[in-house]
Amino acid sequence: MLGAFRPTSVSFGGLLWKVPWKLSPTRKANARARLKRVDAVIEAVRESGIQCNALDRALQLPREHEMHPRDKYTTFSADSRGYRKGIHKVPKWTRLTLRVNPKGF
């Protein structure tokens, strides 16, 4: 491809766009700590006595220690081989609830 928009070596494989295929132990520890902090917030809101639909939905989610490691670090992907992909490949994965609920939530 010639012209102003031809791919450069950086866009082909430079460090700018590379994402590791699996989470490092540090990133896994940070993900676990994030899940534990979310659990603490949900518990604090529950203890405060406030009732709302969002709290009811949050209480149905599994806690960090109840989750299988596969559910902590991967999420469903119809396009990936094995139908799972790392949570770090999901856009804005630190802000989303990626927990799987065995209770049918």
UniProtKB/TrEMBL annotation:
Location in the cell: Mitochondrion
Cellular component annotations (GO), alphabetically ordered: mitochondrial large ribosomal subunit
Q: Which GO terms describe its biological process?
A: mitochondrial translation
> Which keywords are on file for this protein?
Mitochondrion, Ribonucleoprotein, Ribosomal protein
- A single Gene Ontology molecular function, please? structural constituent of ribosome
Source domain of life is: Eukaryota
The UniProt entry, under InterPro entries, shows: Ribosomal_mL60
Q: How does it assemble?
A: Component of the mitochondrial large ribosomal subunit.
Protein name (database record): Large ribosomal subunit protein mL60
Which lineage ranks, top first, belong to the organism behind this chain? Eukaryota, Fungi, Dikarya, Basidiomycota, Agaricomycotina
